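In the current project phase, we have settled on a layout for protein records. A sample record is reproduced below.
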Amino acid sequence: MKHDRPKISDVARLAGVSTATVSRALSAPERVSEETRAAVQQAVEATGYRLNLAARNLRHRRTGGIVALVPNLANPFFSQILSGIASVLGPAGYNLLIADTRTADAQTLLDYAEPSRADGLIILDGTLPATALQGRVPVVEACEWVPGLPAPRVKIDNRAAAGLAIGHLADLGHRRIGHVAGPRGNVLTEARLSGTAEALAARGLPFPEEHLYPGDFSLDSGREAARIWLDQPAATRPTALFLASDAMACGFIGEVQRHGLRVPGDLSVVGFDDIELVAHISPPLTTIRQPRTEIGRAAAERMLACLKGETREADTVLPVELILRASTGPAPA
């Protein structure tokens, strides 16, 4: 027996309103009264009506998709940000599409910025070319940002966050504090490095060139930084390290432990991000917590505002938190 698919007219008849009112209640609920919204919702549930998103998108000349450009999908740091984005876009009727910028060439990036491919871009990679992204579809930058790209930004104060880490180590009595940086030129790397240098100077502590170690936010680069640190004289090398990512901190700790050193007995370590793993390593990592889910939600909310034609120039800056665990302790005697 054939069952006809419920139509919008069925919903209207049951709710006692016009089809135009049903359409408004479903696509722009703020434009109808709460009583009308409730009546339409009850009728939708009773009839089993399903909104034809493809048809609606065609009428409104939109794709129904927002593309998030991520620099490394294998990095667990991005999972909560993407979850936060999806939690806002989904209820608003948008699909979240995700692209790894490491595997996309310049032409692919240009294609993502076409209105026929996406209604907007949420950028999490600060190394992308501004010229390829500007003026095509609405853009929001989250966590990282592209210099020269005039777009709303959702971020943290990376300099102040680095200051929290350095202040904690200095308060524990450490006077030789080193830093493992991210890839040079990256906006996060430079902000955290500047914050480290400023905080050390404010405390009257030295920051010689040999206490700055290269990295790229990865586990392997943390291990390599540890090898450099291990080769330095024990009497002059740092007794505490602040690393610009949790992944590097994990690699660093693992390498020094393999050489028989104790964390925090011989060396204190602070990471950055508070990814899920670091509460479960040995020792659990002291780190700077970024509100990753909130970053994602705020970025999605700003994107929805952009799609409605709302503009707000000021950046959204979210607070960070120093999470104290067992990888930091008093400076060794």
Notes: Residues 8-51 form one domain.
